[in-house]
Target: UspA domain-containing protein
Amino acid sequence: MFSLGDCLVNYAHEHVVRAHTCPKTKTGLVHSYLRIGEGDERSEATRVMVAVNDSTIKGHPHPSISCKRAFEWTLEKMVRSNTGDFKILLLHVQVLDEDGFDEVDSVYASPEDFRDMRESNKVKGLHLLEFFVKKCHEIGVGCEAWIKKGDPKDVICQEVRRVRPDLLVLGSRGLGRFQKVFVGTVSAFCVKHAECPVLTIKRNADEIPSDPADD
Amino acid sequence: MFSLGDCLVNYAHEHVVRAHTCPKTKTGLVHSYLRIGEGDERSEATRVMVAVNDSTIKGHPHPSISCKRAFEWTLEKMVRSNTGDFKILLLHVQVLDEDGFDEVDSVYASPEDFRDMRESNKVKGLHLLEFFVKKCHEIGVGCEAWIKKGDPKDVICQEVRRVRPDLLVLGSRGLGRFQKVFVGTVSAFCVKHAECPVLTIKRNADEIPSDPADD
Model:
């Protein structure tokens, strides 16, 4: 398992863009946007962790509807124009099958398939984070972004314990009781178990796809 | 049942204090703090509904630990010094037994007992709201406050539908699964059913009373 998630990617709106090698993963895929002289006055900013994930709709390598809605709500209704008072911490948890296979049939997979798949997942995850980081830059709010692997509900709670944000923001599909049995309840779990305040934000009614379990 | 809750009590930090008769309930108990010339520029403020309740500890006519913690978090971490960007909507739901009795044995109650009890509940509820309104005034954030009666989880969701806040903030005792069976789960219900984003905030570990079901 690669541990890209151990490398925190720092972004801020005044920055030098610099590609570097992550000291832990030895990959060159992590880009660090380094801050210039705006460290101290932001130390008291409210640190808002936003969990982001891919859309589940096939052929749709975009943020899920619910995490996009949660992120946009946070900027529009909480951060507003007070960008110096908040810092956004973007956490993306990538889910893989136990044997590391996602969409490839394990019987026919070669070592190259493994490698390609891992690379493609890394790139997908970084593209996802890039989407949100770009939005933060546009608005001028400081942010950090990183990737972890595992079961989203467990990893999110672990990261809350590790990073100690002031607030965790989660998008939710707002599915009914019966639909939830099949698709899991990350937000319900985190409301109970995350050791910080949790804000759950449902999708807008006009954004729900034809199958509500999609996102 | 008196419908004090139908009368919205408006507060702001620049105001005239004026006792008046509520047009619906015909009581003189509602005090209106009227705004002076600061209507329009606040129309776009983020409207944060905070549900507040009494402490369950006997002889303790104060806000519950969890709602006080939720309120203080909201001011400190979200509103911060950006008071003009937010408006606090304080909702207090009073719970009464079906027959209107709270602590009085119905067999021995006279009509005067009824009246006294209702008056005392009204006064308790207004004192509770006053506590929070005073804090808003100190900080300089605009607020509204009102009382409703009924089952808190249902009334809170009804009020969200009626008032359409941008956010609902709820304090939570953060009780475990078995304790919850006995003490109810207002926050869990509202996270699922309230038609707006919901922020749940647990008590601090060092604020939990000897019986965790107390608040």
User: Anything to note?
Assistant: The longest helix of chain B spans residues 111-139. The helical segments of chain B are 65-79, 111-139, 152-163, 177-183, 186-193. The radius of gyration of chain B is 17 Å.
